[in-house]
Structures are given as C-alpha cells and as structure tokens.
Amino acid sequence: MDLNFKVLKKSNKNMARLGEFKTKWGISKTPMFMPVGTQATVKTLNPEELIDVHADVVLSNTYHLWLRPGEDIVNEAGGLHEFMNYKNGPMLTDSGGFQVFSLAKKKDIKEEGVYFKSHIDGSKLFLSPEKSIEIQNKLGADIIMSFDECPPYPATREYMENSIHRTLRWAQRGKKVHNNQEQALFGIVQGGEFEDLRRESAIKTVEIGFDGYSIGGAAVGETKEVQYKEVEYATKYLPEDKIRYLMGVGDPIDLIEGVMRGVDIFDCVAPTRIARHGNAHTRNGKINLRNSKYKRDFTPIMDSCDCYACKNFTKAYIRHLLISEEVLGQRLLSIHNIRFLTHLMEEIRENIESDTLEEFRDAFYSSYYNK
C-alpha cells in the first residue's frame, strides 16, 4: 500500500523533517510516537482514552496475537481495528522477531526460520518469514513488518555480517508472500554498531523495495552514543520519500535525538511499563509517586499537562491508589505518560517548523535531566 508519505519541511540544521502520510483513517503527522498495545490493548487504557491522549498509530504484536487468541480469530472479527474497537487511526504490527529471538537459542536459528518454545506453555513453535507475513496479513494492521533477526548486543562482526545477510534473504521471502495490498510492508535495517554493515543492510533493503523502512537493533543495551550512531549509519542511506521508523525507542531525549537524525516514527512499551511501577514523566525528569514526599502533595503531576489525570487528580490521590494497589493509579499514570510523549512530539513538530529544534532539545535536556 502506498502511504503517500510527504516531507513537508526539512530542517536547515540537522536531518529532522516534518511529514505526513495517508491511510484510510486519514492523515497522520510525523514525527510521531506510537503507543504499544502488545495484545491488542494498550495496557489499562480503552480506545476513547487513546483518542484523548492524541494517539494516532497504535502498535500490536504478531507473536503474542498468534498465540492468543490466534490470527484466524482476529481475522474473523474483521481485523484488529474491529476486534479491539480502535477506529481513531492506523495500526501497525511488528513481525514477532524481537520476542522470538529472546526465546530462541542460537542453534535453533536456521535458514528456514526460528525454532523456539512458547513463553506460555513451553510448547515447541516455529516462525518463518512467510509465516510472520501470513499472520500479519490476517491480523489486518495498516502497516506490517518484515521478519528479521534481532542479534544480541554486543555481537561479533562475523555474527552480525551473517545476520544481516540472513535478514535480507528473509525480507525477500516475506515480500514474495505478502498478499494484502491494503497493508504497507516495511523492511528492517540491522547491522549493530558496525557502520559498514548498517550501510550495506540499508542499501540492500532499499534495493528489495518496501513501503517504508525500520531501524532495528538500536536501544538493545548499547550506550546512547552508540545508539545514536547506529541510527545515523542507517538513515542517511534510506530514501527521502519513505517513512523511517526507529523501533523500540521511547526515552524522551532519544525521541528528540532520533528526529534530529532523520527518524519519523517511534514506539515503545516504556510509558505504560514505568507507570505500573509508579513512575511519571515530568518536564523536570521522572518522578515516582510511591515516594512518601507526595503523600500530601495536592498538585497535579504537571500543571501544564492537559491529560485526564492532570486535569482531575493530584499526586497525593494517585499515590494513595498506587500504595493501595488500585489499578486506577496505574491507568492514570499510563494516560499521563503517553500524553507526555505525544505532546512532546507535537512540540518537536512545531520546532521543526520554526527551525528551533536544537534550541528546544538543549532546553528540554537541561530541564528533564537537571543539567
């Protein structure tokens, strides 16, 4: 599917770009952050709350939905949008590769695919590039991912070289069986910390030809410096007229740095995950509302935030909910954290428009990290 991606403005100072793409749900603006609904739900939030936090694209996971409830059931329901009643914007499914490789042993990674055990019941499973695409075709998301190998970090050069070549062969195999023309298929660039392998992976993935391009294997344990270089190594070889997607990145400063290196869309489970542990994003860094100092704090998480949690509740009340193990506390923090990131992306877009992103980055960094 042609997403009709357009670059509306490019920064004069870095690789940041303001863009938009089109699906049957309408126009989506980039750069953007995508909340993760692993099992066809963003944890603790309902579809109306996703709209309220200005979510657009929502990501779900192929591996988890394959196991439960099964792609055929989702397909019979009318696809992911109907199944989870998300009618606000596009959906994206990842290939399942990240989860599969976290469960597989090196000896079980074969040319035909990956053999591994279910995290649910330990049963033996096999996932190939063809099977991943077949599952995603049935799930019916608007954007789907090629099946790639997710190498560990650190990895030797020899291992990484073999890995990117296997991922390229898998990308070709997956593209051949992709048969849902209403879905955009993205290729994935790997290569670890090796500049020439990232370049080779990017160039050869582009030669295969996809509707967009993902950058994988970043933010998997390396330093920030290495992560940012990995992104740079890839984006400069990707087409200007296609979306660039940095997978699994959701730290606020990483979003800004990724945009400055030419990335258009991001996703991460972090905002809801940290919420379940009592953490909230603020302009002055993360805070943990379980801390006793918030026991009598009758102010919002952030005065300037327009989310439901900040407009209606205090830190003291949310802390009470968390300490009492009431799910509402986790929900309110999840709502806030996702809105914090979607609002950050709105600010990033405004600063690309005014060509002040670097100044915005410096001010944000100083406040968020108290430096």
Features:
TIM Barrel; eight-stranded parallel beta sheet; alpha/beta; 371 residues; three-stranded antiparallel beta sheet
Short description:
This protein has helices spanning 47-52, 62-67, 71-76, 80-84, 97-103, 129-139, 157-177, 195-208, 224-235, 252-260, 270-275, 308-312, 315-323, 327-353, 357-368, and strands at residues 6-10, 17-23, 26-30, 32-35, 58-61, 91-94, 114-117, 124-127, 143-145, 184-189, 212-215, 243-246, 265-268, 279-282, 285-288.
Written account of the structure:
The termini are far apart. The protein has about 375 residues and is of the alpha/beta class. It is about 40% helix and about 20% strand. The model has no long low-confidence stretch (mean pLDDT about 95). It is globular and about 60 Å long. Helix 8 packs parallel to helix 9, helix 10 packs parallel to helix 14 (about 325-355) and helix 10 runs antiparallel to helix 15. Strands 4-13-12-11-10-9-6-5 form an eight-stranded parallel beta sheet. Strands 1-2-3 form a three-stranded antiparallel beta sheet. A two-stranded antiparallel sheet has the order 7-8. The protein folds into two domains: about 5-270, TIM Barrel; about 270-370, no CATH class.
Task: Lay out the secondary structure.
Elements lengths: L5 E5 L6 E7 L2 E5 L1 E4 L11 H6 L5 E4 H6 L3 H6 L3 H5 L6 E4 L2 H7 L10 E4 L6 E4 L1 H11 L3 E3 L11 H21 L6 E6 L5 H14 L3 E4 L8 H12 L7 E4 L5 H9 L4 E4 L1 H6 L3 E4 L2 E4 L19 H5 L2 H9 L3 H27 L3 H12 L3
Parallel strand pairs: 4-13, 5-6, 6-9, 9-10, 10-11, 11-12, 12-13
Antiparallel strand pairs: 1-2, 2-3, 7-8, 14-15
